[in-house]
Design brief:
With 69 residues, the chain is α+β, with helices and mostly antiparallel strands. Helix content is 36%, strand content 14%. The longest helix has 11 residues.
Length: 69
Amino acid sequence: MLNNNYIIYRLQSGDSFAHLAHKFNLSEDDLISFHNQNCNNNSQIYFKDISGLNEIYIPINYKNIRRDR
């Protein structure tokens, strides 16, 4: 799914926060923070554990989004 600021990435077997953060050039904490700010409280992340999640919100252009805050 696509929005102006983010994509909703469907998690796959073997995904981890470390892997996704590296793949999208983010820190794990920034990835979790961005997801939590955009997920409408439906699937907030409190620990670095993706078990039980089906999708995660990933910024399209993190540097621009980060600058706007």
